[in-house]
Design goal:
Elements (H helix, E strand, L loop, with lengths): L1 E12 L9 E2 L7 H12 L6 H8 L2 E8 L2 E7 L13 E17 L1 H12 L19 E6 L3 H7 L6 H6 L5 E9 L8 E9 L6 E15 L15 H8 L1
Parallel strand pairs: 2-5
Antiparallel strand pairs: 1-5, 1-6, 3-5, 3-7, 4-5, 7-9, 8-9
Helix pairs in contact: 1-3
């Protein structure tokens, strides 16, 4: 088994799992359906290739929140080109300045193919929506003889330099990990983002179980601060009386 890790960072990201009609929300972290769609696009797969999609959907998925970002709201207006009739106002939500480490675990051969596709993608990757390009290549690396939990625990902290400096008093930083639950794990949450079909006329997603845990990452910008010595203002008065 191998694990392929990705760095998902950009000015804006949007990972919808329950968006409907004119209100397009975003989850607080990348969804499995969004990342699997990115990998399928890198391979050049067309919508409706459900047999190939099923192979990708069987990959175990997890994500680490290295920099949570800020949720922002935008709205869009549109009208019919022919009639000029106004369409309903559409609300769009995004994550600004967020950084995530996503990982997929699977068979070596398949991950080798995905790794090669990310090096030279057929279709450009985007972070949930086409209006959200990544700030840099998303591929981080391919780890052999590793599992999902280990890869998300050991990957270097990927937060932006300015964000790391804000945490410079912390030598190690706690990070949240959301990963697919193993069959024996209890207390899992459910999220409807297990891809079943990406066909434009009938997209389908099933529920999947995920667990949340904390890991600790080394902060390369940590600064050691000397302890402030205790100060007793009455000491000077005692010295004068002597």
């Amino acid at each position: 088994m191998s694990v392929l890790t990705l760095r998902l960072a950009g000015p804006l990201q949007a990972w919808g799992a329950s968006a409907r009609f004119a209100r397009r929300t975003t989850e607080s972290a990348p969804t499995k359906s969004g990342v699997i769609g990115m990998l399928a696009a890198a391979q050049g797969l067309q919508r409706g290739h459900d047999a190939t999609l099923a192979q990708l959907a069987r990959l175990r998925f997890g994500v680490r929140i290295d920099q949570p970002g800020t949720r922002v709201r935008d709205y869009q207006t549109a009208q019919h080109q022919d009639t000029g009739k106004l369409m309903p106002v559409s609300e769009r939500y995004y994550l600004a300045d967020a950084v995530f480490v996503a990982a997929v675990e699977g068979e070596d051969t398949l991950l080798d193919e995905l790794d090669a596709a990310l090096r030279a993608p057929v279709y450009a990757p985007y972070l949930g929506r086409r209006s959200c390009p990544p700030a840099q290549p998303v591929r981080l690396g391919l780890q052999r003889s590793s599992d999902l939990a280990q890869a998300l625990r050991e990957e270097l902290w990927q937060a932006s330099a300015w964000y790391r400096r804000q945490r410079r008093r912390e030598a190690t930083v706690p990070l949240s990990v959301l990963r697919e639950a193993l069959p024996h794990e209890d207390g899992a949450d459910l999220l409807r983002d297990q891809p079943v079909s990406f066909a434009a006329e009938f997209r389908r997603h099933a529920l999947r179980a995920l667990v949340t845990e904390s890991v600790y990452a080394h902060n390369p910008d940590a600064v050691a601060f000397e302890a402030v010595p205790e100060h007793d203002p009455f000491t000077a008065l005692e010295d004068e009386t002597l």
